[in-house]
Fold Transcriptional regulator.
Amino acid sequence: MKNKMTELKIAYFDQLGRKELDQAVQHFVLKHPNVDVKLLATSHDGAFAKLNEDEADIAINDLRDENLNFDETELTQAGVMAILPKGMYPNGIQMIEKDELNDMTCFIVAKPEEEVSELHLFKDLYQIGSQFIASNSVEEAALLVASGSGYFILNENTARLINTTDLQPLFLLDHGQLIKQKIMAFYKSNSALSSEFIKLLQQEY
């Protein structure tokens, strides 16, 4: 008789990347071959919605200013980077003050239903003074920026995953302090399987 598979459903904000998530899944399924791990890529708001509606056991998301009724575990704090056209600043420059970019257009990587949430992050929480234009994908934003049209923002983990041949990633500062994105695991009930998976995630980050 075949053993019944147990499910562990993980919703994640797709702009955070999934390298660490995939590595944690690989380790987890080796120990728990009868657990079917489902990864659900979604938006920032969508990850919380899936958790709230019991469509996910864990949500991997960045912590903003929402009033949440979930338990949470910090996974990492990732530096926020401005992705600029190649050669805009001399080689060796690794950081830039956000106010230096006020005259440039900032592309928000967001689908139409995500624009309000991402604009709130950049304009109100990061307090970036640029004009904002929405872009549907990281790939589209990268092409626009490579042609000299403004910049876009990613955290350092995600920035490592893109082709930067024609781009210049610089850490973003706010009055000398590195702007950081706090990446968290959110959950309603901390089952043994969820707890073990979150510990693996902490190790990968």
Q: What stands out?
A: The chain has six helices and eleven strands. Residues 91 and 131 are 26 Å apart (CA to CA). The helical segments are 19-31, 44-52, 115-125, 138-146, 156-159, 192-204.
